[in-house]
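Quarterly update from the structural biology core.
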Amino acid sequence: MNVKSKPEPKRSSGRARRAGDDLERVFASVARYFSLLSDPTRLKILHSICQSEQSVTAIVARTGATQTTVSRHLGLLYQAGVVSRRRERRRVHYRVSDPVFVDICRSVCVQIAGGIDERAPLRNELLEFAAQH
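Predicted structure, tokenized:
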């Protein structure tokens, strides 16, 4: 009697599994990076410091947010490496340290502004923002 054996399931190599794990880590990092763009206050903060370094007091004035809110968001941006800070006596100054992040933000703003009705003030504000940076 001739008995056919079942083919053994193919096993993925350790290398393929590691590549998949690496890709998962990359995707998780990218998601965290893009999550920084998910809050309007952070976008306002980035807008206020794109061109030049600003003190927290100046950022608060330019964004209209409270100092507590601005400080919290600046902390997140700093931890992510998007902004850097410099202390001058009692004042802390922030600037963008990741120009790629600003480019991504600008590209998204331009794309969204292009889809907004031309008469809408938001479209003009977004286009102005993109032109400045």
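The radius of gyration is 23 Å.
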